[in-house]
Amino acid sequence: MLAKDFFTNRYQELGWAYHPVEVRQAIRINAINNSKCSLINRLESKGIGLEKIPFLENGYWITKSKFSVGATPEYLLGMYSIQEAAAQIPATLFADIKGKTVLDACAAPGGKTVQLADIMENTGAIIVLDIDKQRLTALSNQLERCRVKNSIIYQMDARQASTLNVKFSRVLLDVPCSGNFATDKQWFHRRTIKDVQRNAALQREVLAEAANTIEDDGEIVYSTCSLEPEEDELNIDWAIKSFDLQTEKVRIAYGERGVTEVFGKKLDDSIENCVRIWPGETQGFFVCKLRRRLGR
Amino acid sequence: MKQISDFARRFGAEISLDESLIVTRQNRYFLINEDLKKLLSKAFFYAGTYLGRLKNDVFFPSFNLTRMIAESQANKTIVDERTEWLFICGRDIFKRGITKVIGSKKKGDLTLILNRHGECLGFGEISHNLDEEREGLAIRNILDIGDFLRREK
Does residue B89 share a domain with residue B47? Predict the structure, then answer.
């Protein structure tokens, strides 16, 4: 069986019929660096067409532009970031995050770190980890461009986060994953189920470390841009059965509930609190919110 | 820190930063706050607000620092929209693109370059006295925000 058939048959079993998609380019306004209205006026006066993304407060799709939106003075001044629409969801899911100590465990290239800082209005602290020094340099450039003031970056594997001896009240786990065909035209040729299984195992190690570093009643947001349930619902099912974690409903008016039966295996009913996004206007995505139970 | 205040003085500006909140890592300077100070351990890669780096005894400022200097009384040159675009592409500034000069107009002095919204785009060195009736090259580009794109290459 061709790899493409193998994966698309799985998607069919999970309830989605494969079809090619064109992901729309999106930006996110960095609200602390400017007023939203005046930025929109400035971009529109340059001939950049914008359409509000209905499920995001500061997200806009680019409908037209004669030049790269990554080279305008407004971009270079940190007034907005180029960030795919679904990827803008995870950072918005934390409750009451201002002033908190937050872990961004697999942070590069830093789009979500900047978004967290924006939501936090540069208060509190974001501890930012990534293992790859080159990616950390790119991340640092993003933080400088977007005027982020409340972060500390360490070159560190997320699986070693507990060595920092810090308890976090919020943890963002945008874990390394297998990706999906919507943003990689060669995806079906490059990926095998073994890659998926390897990534799923790594993600469990990162989840376990997060469970180790989160405060009681703290929140973890877990996300991937993988469509494969091994990296999504199955990992969350494992996490809630292995640690004192429970899912919370992801409140976003987009996507579908997490699947609770995967290839014949019944998962915990609370997995439907997660959101699975099949590719369309956005890339494929999965996001889940977990809370550490009190009084462990 | 001396390097930072000396750099600001080249724009005719005085900035005062709390030295107890300035940390260095591999010749790079960062301004942190009390929240970050409590959490910072020695092996950090980046922290708080990046201010600049020292290389061979020469101080290279960050855009955070130029923005901080621009918020104080300093030499500033405001340019029109076309010149803004050319400047961030790495080009020098011609007299006809300048709409206003604040502070020094003297050849050899440094001046911050601002767009019509008052946003700092970088800085340059004045090439000839700006109050002279003379067209042509006026400010030589030293650093501009297009550097963010050039760094990625």
Answer: no
Supply the ipTM of this predicted assembly: 0.96
Which residues of chain A are under the pLDDT cut of 50? none
Q: Is A147 on the interface with B (CB under 8 A)?
A: yes
Cα angle for residues A191, A231, A141 (degrees, 5° grid): 80
Which segments within A92-160 are labelled E, that is strand? 101-104, 125-130, 151-155
Residues B13 and B60 in one domain: yes
DSSP run (H or E) holding B87: helix B81-88
Report whether B145 contacts A77 (CB < 8 A).
yes
Which of A76, A140, A149 shows the shortest C-beta gap to B88? A76
Return the pLDDT at A295.
Answer: 67
What confidence score (pLDDT) does residue A290 get?
Answer: 98
The parent domain of residue B52 ranges over 2-69
The model's pLDDT over A221-243, given as tens digits with 9 standing for 90+, comes to 999 999 999 999 999 999 999 99
Q: What is the pLDDT of residue B89?
A: 97
Q: How many CB atoms lie within 10 A of CB A201?
A: 12
Q: Let me know: does A16 contact A200? Beta carbons within 8 Å.
A: no
What proportion of chain B, given as a percentage, has pLDDT over 90?
90
Task: Name the domain boundary from B69, B91, B122.
Answer: B69
Number of domains in chain B: 2
Is residue A125 within 8 angstroms of chain B, CB to CB? yes
Residues of A in contact with B49 (CB under 8 A): 147, 149
Q: Please name the amino acid found at residue A228.
A: E
Residue A143's nearest CA partner among B41, B49, B70, B38 is B49
* B30 and B57 assigned to the same domain: yes
Beta strand B93-94 with B58-61 is unpaired
Q: What is the pLDDT of residue B133?
A: 81
pLDDT digits (tens, 9 = 90+) for A108-160: 999 999 999 999 999 999 999 999 999 999 999 999 999 999 999 999 999 99
Taken in order of first residue, the domains within chain A and their CATH numbers are: 3-12+85-292 (3.40.50.150), 24-83 (3.30.70.1170)
Distance CA A197, CA A180 (A): 15
Indicate which CATH number applies to the domain containing B83. 2.30.130.10
Is there a catalytic annotation at residue A225? yes
